[in-house]
């Protein structure tokens, strides 16, 4: 098995002891659910993926990604659910 050289780490250890790898990230053309959004936010926060790379890879706007990050950090994974958007939206 050959591993492609990539800049930066291939894995990161999350505070809960879980391991996040590049293979765990969703495909670029994905249906966005809270767990996939959280995986991308964690990948950027813990240095697995650069912010600009995540935005480019997933076709996000900076505002959209920043909103995910803010909601996830303040309220947890439930804030990323589209059905909970009104409940956690900033006034």
TrEMBL record:
Instruction: Give the highest taxon in the source lineage.
Output: Bacteria
What's the source species for this entry? Paracoccus thiocyanatus
State the protein's name.
DUF1153 domain-containing protein
What molecular function terms (GO) are annotated for this protein?
sequence-specific DNA binding
Q: Which SUPFAM superfamilies match?
A: TrpR-like
Gene3D superfamilies in alphabetical order:
Winged helix-like DNA-binding domain superfamily/Winged helix DNA-binding domain
Record InterPro entries? DUF1153 (IPR009534), Trp_repressor/repl_initiator (IPR010921), WH-like_DNA-bd_sf (IPR036388)
């Amino acid at each position: 098995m050959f591993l492609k050289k990539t800049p930066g780490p291939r894995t990161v250890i999350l505070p809960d002891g879980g391991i996040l790898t590049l293979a765990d990230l969703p495909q670029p053309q994905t249906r966005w659910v809270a767990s996939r959004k959280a995986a991308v936010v964690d990948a950027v926060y813990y240095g697995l993926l650069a912010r600009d790379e995540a935005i480019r890879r997933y076709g996000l706007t900076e505002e959209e990604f920043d909103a995910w990050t803010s909601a996830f950090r303040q309220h947890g994974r439930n804030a990323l659910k589209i059905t909970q958007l009104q409940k956690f939206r900033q006034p």
